[in-house]
Amino acid sequence: MRNFGRLITRELRLFWSNKVFVVAFLFMPFVLAFVLGNVYKKGKVTDLPVVLIDNDQTPASDKFGTMIEDHQQLKIVHQDFELGDVQQMMLTYRAVAVIVIPDRFEANLLAQRMPEINCYLNMSNTLTAGSAGTAVSVVAGTMNAGILISSYQKRGMPASIASKQYESFKHNVFYEYNPAGNYLYFLWPGLIFSIIQQLLLLALGVSFSQEIANGTFSKDGLLSYSRSPLVLILAKILPYSVLGMMNIGVFYLLSIYFKVPMPWHPGVLLAAQVLLVIGSSLLGTLYSVVFPSPLKASELLMSIASPAFTISGFTWPQVPSVLQTISMAIPLTPYLQLMRMTLFQNADWMDVWPQLKHMLILIAVFLFLTWLLLFFRIRKVLKSESNNLPATAPA
């Protein structure tokens, strides 16, 4: 136990001697979480810039323009009375959409000739284009209904009946789990834990490889404290796991600041976060034993850590099956599935047991492989050093 305490002290000294790790663990998660939180703080897109081309200039076209301007998600940044180059307009005014009201719009409405309003969407950003297209459709549908109800009333139909005649059936949509469609709630927590996993992978990815490269993985160096693979693994991951949990504490503090809803079963999410920290630490440690070069270990772990969030399927469900299989070997993937279920869907222990079991299996596999490889490496080093001892002179 005394040697284990000395090993922990040694690891902390190594940590404080590496200024990059100190800054990365103590400051970067807070800074990135705060910056990303402010990026998505609004929660949903509003005031999307649109260009309105009014070829009609009548009360009806003015009314449509006013309804566009009044919509929360749209903002008219330029209005013209003649259609020019649509793509150039989008480029000049940074417009998400160009809306064109045709000539004789009001006259054709009165004559019931079904005039067409055209909306050109800037698809260089599919998120904003989709939001703008939906908003314009809502405005057009609202005005359509209003005109139809008004025409029924002019024919002598009571308002209460006219309001029921403009559609043959009702269509209801109910939004569950994040009904406001808040982008901050959806994306920010996942990004933060992706960053925490990257930090743990990179830090632990050089834990043993750095010892090997520096020549301290020897009887006089690291192995003078303990020759037990399990003790050495625990000594390596414990300080960084504690730092990882501190960063999770920062996440909860900033969640309060950004008013991100807390899960109904916080114990479930906290348990998963502990497993994520342990699993990520062990995966990094495994790489540091497999690859004795710190540079190679870091490069290979970066190839895992960088795309981990993308291939997890958290934001894009249509990930190819090959990448899905690879992503299931990364602790972040089952954690993100579990996090979404607990944060939004009020999942309890039974609901997320498959994800918890998945993370426990990953931890067991990583721990066993690291222990096995480290056991043989320790034996190899001790045998090599014994063979290199000078022969004792005969008496």
Annotation keywords:
disordered C terminus; abc type-2 transporter like fold; 4-stranded mixed beta sheet; 17 helices; 2 domains; 395 residues; single chain; mainly alpha
- As residue ranges, the low-confidence spans are 391-395
Count of the separate structural domains: 2
As laid out across the biggest beta sheet, the strand order is 2-1-3-4
Helix content: 55-70%
Average the pLDDT over all residues and give the rounded result.
86
Principal-axis shape: elongated
**How many strands, what sense, and barrel or not for the largest sheet?**
4 strands, mixed
Which sequence of SSEs, written as H and E, runs from N to C? HHHEHEHEHEHHHHHHHHHHH
The percentage of residues in β strands lies in 5-15%
Number of strands: 4
Q: Helix/strand/pairing class, anyone?
A: mainly alpha
How far apart are the termini? Answer: 41 Å
Discrete helix count: 17
Work out the radius of gyration. Answer: 31 Å
List the quaternary state of the chains: single chain
Description:
This protein is mainly alpha-helical. The protein folds into two domains: 2-40 and 185-387, no CATH class; 48-162, abc type-2 transporter like fold, CATH 3.40.1710. Helices cover 64% and strands 6% of the residues. The chain is built from 17 helices and four strands. The chain has helices spanning 2-17, 19-26, 28-39, 59-70, 86-93, 105-110, 126-154, 159-162, 183-204, 207-214, 229-257, 266-290, 294-305, 308-311, 321-327, 332-345, 353-387, and strands at residues 48-54, 74-80, 97-101, 118-121. The chain has a four-stranded mixed beta sheet, with helices on both faces. Helix 4 links the parallel strand 1 and strand 2. Helix 1 (2-17) packs across helix 11 (229-257). It starts with a helix and ends in an 8-residue tail after the last helix. The relative contact order is 0.10.
